[in-house]
Amino acid sequence: MTFLFLLAAAPAEAKLVTINDMGEIVWSVLSDEASITLEPTSSFIEIKKIDQDKPDQKPVVSLGKQDGKISLKVSSENGTKELEINKNENNLIEIEERPEVNKLIIGVQNDKFRLEQKGVVAYTENQINIDASSAKLKVATSKGDEFLTILPYEAVEAALRTKLLTSVSRGKLEISEHEGELQYKMDGNKTFNLFDLYAYSIPVTAYVSPLSGELLSIDSPGWYKYVSFLFI
């Protein structure tokens, strides 16, 4: 059985789906429970949690786009619930922290999916699938689903550890296929401190594996590519 809802408006930080530390789905809905198409009557709409008599079994949460429409879907042995998302919402899905799982917030912004971990944000146009029981993420690619083992904050940490970048620009992370592989793309800078008198920066774009955290390649001024090993 499939339930379809239309999300027309919601408070700025209102979670619709929480994957708690037990791997269970907790739904939040607009206060007008009787309506299938949820139309707002004012700028403020109350959000409250639904108490489920029977927890979803083997739930999978998906955030995807088809025919220009974005939808959030929760599928389980109990059925499927689907919501159509037609506005920017940074906080649609929250994965709560648990052992070996970091808190992650997933939303939609400018027709892209937004993943936020510890203040670091990455964007992707690829469908996101979440196994709620394990909190493992997969991203749809032309070759099939691939695990997103390394989350945004961890990807930035991995890039900075190489010392090929000094900083990464906020909001400049993308998750997409590059040269046939799913990669993080992040824009940043390498700053050289010359004799503690002058700081000189060059732009550097890093590509990081979302599976291993390995730095795959960089785009930078030609000369830096040839001498970058001196700064590792």
Automatic annotation (TrEMBL):
<protein>
    <submittedName>
        <fullName>Uncharacterized protein</fullName>
    </submittedName>
</protein>
